[in-house]
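Job type: complex structure
Entries:
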Amino acid sequence: MKARIVVTLKNGVLDPQGKAIEGALHGLGVEAVQSVRQGKVFDIEIAGSDQMLAQAQLTTACEKLLANLVVENYSITILEH
Amino acid sequence: MKTAIITFPGSNRERDVFRAVAQATGHNPTHVWHADHELPAGTDLVILPGGFSYGDYLRCGAIAGRAHIMNAVRDHAARGGLVLGICNGFQILVESGLLPGVLMRNANLRFICKMQHLRVERSDTAFTKAYQPHQIIKVCIAHGEGNYIADEATLAQIEGEGLVAFRYCDATGQLGGKANPNGSLHDIAGIYSQKRNVLGMMPHPENLIDALVGGTDGRGLFQSLVA
């Protein structure tokens, strides 16, 4: 099955890259943009069809490596079975 | 003093730190590869050198922080053994959980490579005995992600327990403002673990050990190890 993990900075953590992108968008005339926060997307294929097991494995992946829980949050979405 | 220098794919300061340790202690360190499971018997000091381990993929130090050898480094630290992480080594130490906090992208988004003054916060640790308290030293920095961040409770603990090792300052010892190159909270350039046997720092003392190349203010750190 396929899953998507999104890792984002926690609220309140300064995101200078997001700020720079925000500035560049304003420079391009995309003025309605109010703020930009940059994150990461991981598309992952998981063996088997047990959704509970997949969820548990992906949580382990996030907590052990994909996210730094000091400054980042993560969310897991199972995309297709 | 028996020293092990861990080399990861992408480390690039392992020879600089080898030279600094050999010069100060009279003993040649051993190079240890990241895929090894054990440190050489009788290791007193483990050094994680600077560089770009795993190309800084995912987050700086994230993948190296979970390498096999880091379990041995964790055990060594738990026994009270000395661990020194410089630059990428500091990033690896926070990613592996051996030190608190995290090193984020420099506030100005630029890779910074320049000479930098530091204030030695205390001179009663295994790493700083050869310095005077609050001595100002001139070393160099070379990093893109050196912006030290921790939550308020962690920062309060670091300050309360005297775990700040070095702070960025100017030539006169003034902290803050332009003297802080990367946005680090409390001008933190390096911190200790609670038992002060683990030190992580962004600046490079190992590159300031020879008057021909910029100065010798970095020597004190390595001389402290055998003082």
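Summary: The domain at 3-224 of chain B is CATH 3.40.50.880 (Rossmann fold). The interface with chain A takes residues 58-59, 62-63, 66, 94-95, 100-102, 104-109, 149-151, 183 of chain B (CB under 8 Å).
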